[in-house]
Amino acid sequence: MSNGGQNPTARQIMERGLARRYRKERHFRALGITASCIGLIFLVLFFASIVSGGHSAFSQTYIALDISFDAQKISGGDTSPEALATGDYAGLVKSSLYTLFPDVKGRSDKRKLNRLISVGAEYQLQDKVMANPGLIGTEAQVWVPAAANVDMLVKGNIDRELDERSRPLGDKEIAWIDQLEQQGLLDRQFNTALFTNGDSRDPELAGIRGALMGSFYMLLVTIALAFPIGVAAAIYLEEFAPKNRWTDLIEVNINNLAAVPSIVFGLLGLAVFINFVGLPRSAPLVGGLVLALMTLPVIIIAARASIKAVPPSIREAALGVGASQMQTVFHHVLPLALPGIMTGTIIGMARALGESAPLLMIGMVAFVVDIPQSAMDPASALPVQIFLWADSPERAFVERTSAAILVLLGFLLMMNLAAVLLRRRFERKW
Amino acid sequence: MYGVNEGVAEDLRSGRFGAGFSGAEMLENSAAQRADSPDGAGTIGNIQAANPYMVASGVNVHYGDNHAIRNVSLEIGKNEVIALIGPSGCGKTTFLRCLNRMNDTIESARVTGEITLDGHEIHDKSLDVVALRARVGMVFQKPNPFPKSIYDNVAYGPRIHGLASTRAELDEIVHGSLQRAGLWEEVKNRLHEPGTGLSGGQQQRLCIARTIAVSPEVILMDEPCSALDPIATARIEDLIDELRRNYAIVIVTHSMQQAARVSQRTAYFHLGDLVEVDATNKVFSNPGHRLTEDYITGRFG
Q1: pTM listed for this prediction
Q2: What is the CATH number of the domain that holds B14?
Q3: What are the pLDDT digits (tens) for A34-71?
Q4: By residue range, what is the domain housing residue B118?
């Protein structure tokens, strides 16, 4: 540098390199933007496909029938509650249909006509009569669910141009449906059954209520176990445990546990909770226990990280005025770490909510029609329900699968939002 | 166990405690000094206080294999301020933390020797560490108020020790402590606002109020003004002078002017040895040891 005339000075060398440095930075930025865009595109595609496939499941085709609640037809004139409970309501539906289509003759055609209405219609009528026996002897227009194939035709999922033999509805049936539509007796309404019913073999009657309740009880068990145990373990390991080879070993094991595939936890649950302890199969209790085991390491790791993030000066301040170690932890460290712990817990719970593999191992993949009333009743869970419906051959289950996915995503989104809001609300700055 | 302590211990372990040293001659000098006096008998001046309240004798601290302070004997007197000075890593903070057993929180730390408080050995089982820390309060280098209201910051100590049985008594303690810390006038209308919203100097006075709220007998101050501007520092120094009437005060400081201003006695630490203790004016006007002289005249440190 001293013989500046011939050799480039440090400034010149630096300036020459400057352009290259900026170019590298530009490339890196472009790379980052590309990566983000690709991610976004896939996200949009994913949501577009699910929403377009699933939104139609939130409505359902209903058919208006004029029903005359004739005690003679229902139960041979007997109006006692027992007789009404076992009465023939399918007959009511049929006779109402025959009055609507007086031209339909012959067993085969009549059967085809009856198949336009869901089997749920007779149960709907029965429930109506049981709830209000005063209906007997009156006439009323009742909207009953149409069969899944009718629903599919109305939603345009059955191609009218196809050859009659290769579509589920024949020309006659399509003509009847069109006639109903012209008379204004056919309408698409909000599909309440999707949210109030349990699973069913008939798509128009199948709902996610059972799976939702199963998931709810399961998460209840999971959070009741995983949160206190996880936080207690994290506090002990972070604040009380001596740092030695044993605690190092525990730490490594917890980290490894977080990486164990979830199906392994399912096998563990099968072996321990069902085969050894003897808990019932398919019960949300067992599912909750398995998911708690799975979530525990996630919560411990998140809790330890947020406990570690509490500034040591706060601990010293508390110890300095004579707080015991326990008081220091519970009065100062834990309240400051809690937002982080809760965020970690919610994210762990969201993962547990979306988990299906371990539940397959403990029998929660069963076909359960009844809505579980407790954590001991057989149940399935939302992701398992999606798996089951995705496996069903009926066309109408395709849109319901997407709808169930939408509901699951809605819950996951809500949980993640809660985590973000909690973090924003309670975040402290020093 | 905790980050900062570990940091301190780490510094000491890795032997960084010579930082701030300039001449190799100085190092040789101190090595020779240590060889001459392996038992710390090299402390010159007068370790005795007029009215001793805490007495340390033959205190050694090891962090793992590292001998952080050797054979320190020092008396801390009532109604006086003793300043601990010395270059970074010389062991003055370590010694300070021995006095209320804050070194217990560092796992690798081992403290030997005798420290008595009002005649009772502080490591004795009969003296609980929680009770000890209530009697020997501490103010830290960085103001560290709890992220709670000003009132709760001061009331925390009295609450956990059960010093007030009624709300009115607690109010009185909080009022009195803030008054003595010289903060009352500034915060009396905002007692329920967060303590972290105060300025740095106010926060440090809040920490002092928090410390005196549990009526300690000794107050340890670890560079209490190092994060403050000169005006806030002056206020704290006035406060220290006020507090001297009721408490025994030990203050670690890097500022020799501050030591000269606030203390009656000064102890000079060097590489883990207590080199010299004497009346402050004696140490600053006529130091007995060459290391002390070099340090206070700014030859190093």
Answers
A1: 0.81
A2: 3.40.50.300
A3: 999 999 999 999 999 999 989 999 999 999 998 888 88
A4: 2-296
Do the domain assignments include residue B185? yes
Q: Do B130 and A313 touch (CB under 8 A)?
A: no
What backbone torsions phi and psi does residue A188 show, to the nearest 5 degrees? -95, 125
Distance from C-alpha of A204 to C-alpha of A377, rounded to nearest angstrom: 25
Q: Which residues lie closer than 8 Å to A384 by C-beta, 6 or more apart? A: A211, A356, A359, A360, A364, A365
The neighbour count for residue B56, using CB atoms within 10 Å, is: 20
**Chain B within 8 Å of A247 (Cβ-Cβ)?**
no
**Is B87 among the domain residues?**
yes
- Calculate ∠ Cα A204-A206-A212, nearest 5°: 145
Q: Is residue B301 part of a domain?
A: no
> Which residues in chain A touch residue B130, judged by CB atoms under 8 angstroms apart?
322-324
Amino acid, single-letter form, for residue A221 = V
Cβ contact A313–B142 (<8 Å): yes
ipTM for this model: 0.80
Q: How many domains are contained in chain B?
A: 1
* pLDDT tens track for A234-288: 999 999 988 889 999 999 999 999 889 999 999 999 999 999 999 998 999 999 9
DSSP assignment string, A125-180: HHHHHHH-GGGTT-EEEEEEEBPHHHHHHHTT-S-TTS-GGGSSS-HHHHHHHHHH
Cβ within 8 Å, pair A316-B4: yes
Looking at beta carbons, which residues of chain A come within 8 Å of B132?
Answer: 322
